[in-house]
Design brief:
Layout (H helix, E strand, L loop, with lengths): L11 H14 L12 H8 L3 H13 L3 E3 L5 E3 L5 H20 L3 H15 L7
Antiparallel strand pairs: 1-2
Helix pairs in contact: 1-3, 2-3
Length: 125
């Protein structure tokens, strides 16, 4: 939960940025979590849209969130190299699947089969 103290000498955007950063760093907000839209969060917190926008921009510059155009803003895997690498590979795989016309359900079965063949981390088959 985000709480903005109107009486604080700390600007609202900084209060918001710090609270979201803390939730991301302590994993209260998991990698891949979709954040509320800037307009929605501004309305929920009774803040100006530009205030929330500034907090989001600073979080993005710090690599804690990423904005995916109209899809929204998400908690980034940056800083967690294995998760970031997996996310990039998944995005590349999804693009390949779309380009060759394979059904998404079949694509997921392909991944599940590959994961089953590979086994748990640290074990080679």
């Amino acid at each position: 939960m985000i709480v903005i103290d109107a009486g604080s000498p700390t600007p609202p955007y900084e209060q918001l940025r710090a609270q979201l950063a803390r939730q991301i760093q302590d994993r209260s907000l998991a990698v891949g979590t979709r954040l509320p839209t800037i307009r929605r969060l501004a309305a929920d917190l009774s803040l100006a849209v530009n205030t929330v926008g500034r907090a989001y921009r600073e979080l993005e510059e710090a690599g804690l969130i990423e904005t995916r155009g109209r899809a929204g803003s998400f908690v980034s895997a940056a800083g967690e190299p294995a998760l970031e690498q997996a996310r990039r590979a998944a995005r590349d795989y999804a693009a390949l699947i779309a380009s060759v016309g394979i059904d998404p359900t079949q694509a997921i079965r392909i991944v599940e089969a590959a994961l089953s063949a590979t086994g748990p981390p640290g074990t080679a088959r």
